[in-house]
Structures are given as C-alpha cells and as structure tokens.
Amino acid sequence: FRPANPVTRGQVSKFVVNAANFTEPIPNSQQSFEDVPNANPFWLYIERLSGRGYISGYTCGSPPAGPCIPPANRPYFLPGNNVTRGQLAKIDANAANYTETPTTQTFEDVPSTSPFYTFIERVALHGVISGYTCGSPPAGPCIPPANRPYFLPYNNVMRGQTAKIVANTFYPNCQTPSRR
C-alpha cells in the first residue's frame, strides 16, 4: 500500500468514488478532460466526479494545464500529479455532500481567504480531520490566544492520510459495508 507515498489525482478519484459508492454508467464517448481519455485507468472515476461537479480541473492554455485543443478546448485534470491536502478536502467534502457554511477558523494556516477554507472547515466540522498540533513539527508555532492546529493545505497528501480521511468520511466509526 505504501502509506507514506504521495497519492495522485487519479488515485484519489478512484478512492473517493469507490468509498462514496458512485456507480452510475458513463458513456465511453464522454471525455471531460483533455488529458483523461477513456483509455486512462482512472477515466471512469474522474468522469463520475466531474459529472457531479465535484472536480473541474485546470483551464486549458493556463498553467499548469496544457494547450487548448479545438474544437472542445477541454480543461486538464493532470491525473498523475500529486494531490494536496487542500485538494483532497475539497474532493472529499463535495463527494460527501457536505454543505455547511463555515463561521469559524479551525486551522491557523487556513484563513477564510484560502481557496480551500470552506471545504477544510466542512470536513473538520464532521470530525474527519484534526490537523497538526501547533508547536509540533510539521506544524508552525502556536499563536496565542487561539493556539490553533495547522492543516498544511498545500502539502502533498500521503496514501495513508488519504485512506484515513476517506474512511472517516464515508465509514464513520469504521462501519464499512459488508463484503460478500
């Protein structure tokens, strides 16, 4: 399993889609992202998330995406790129259909101006994540009076962390569905 290895955007799509039990059929002709044709091993999972509006990728022609290819000018997903902790929180919160409007700041390094603030706060509200205690590596210093933990939203998420977050979201208290 290699729990300390980074996880890719394609792999996270598969983890989340399987945990959320998204099973709708996708036509082989569907292609939402220029770099994810139906021959890609993660195509089905990426299409299931994209079809629900849970992922959107990167606009073609702008970094880090590739060039625009007419006539579709599709965005790019970059399925082989590593996922950050903030990106995972967004995908996870969306797939879980968490819709709360956050009113507080849980993590010192995730202010309300962060693009991932809403999603990180939603998964924190559900007890899915807790972050790193301030003052202890890899977190930053404690800042009184709140002494909030850190989430490190721009760090790559590891496979073990991903498994924990996805399991906490879709199988709270380890209540996994029975296997036949």
Topology overview:
Layout (H helix, E strand, L loop, with lengths): L8 H12 L22 H9 L33 H11 L21 H9 L33 H12 L10
Helix pairs in contact: 1-2, 1-3, 1-5, 3-4, 3-5
Describe this structure in words.
With 180 residues, the chain is mostly helical. It is 29% helix and 0% strand. The chain has five helices and no strands. The radius of gyration is 17 Å and the shape is globular. The longest helix is centred in the N-terminal third of the chain and has 12 residues, at 9-20. It has helices at residues 9-20, 43-51, 85-95, 117-125, 159-170.
Brief description of this entry?
It contains five helices and no strands.
Residues in helices, as a percent range: 25-40%
First-residue to last-residue Cα separation = 23 Å
The tally of helices reads 5
List how many beta strands DSSP finds.
0
Shape: globular
Structural class: mainly alpha
User: Uncertain segments of ≥5 residues (pLDDT<50)?
Assistant: none
Order of helices and strands: HHHHH
**How does the major sheet shape up?**
none
Backbone CA Rg: 17 Å
Average per-residue pLDDT, rounded, comes to: 95
Strand content: under 5%
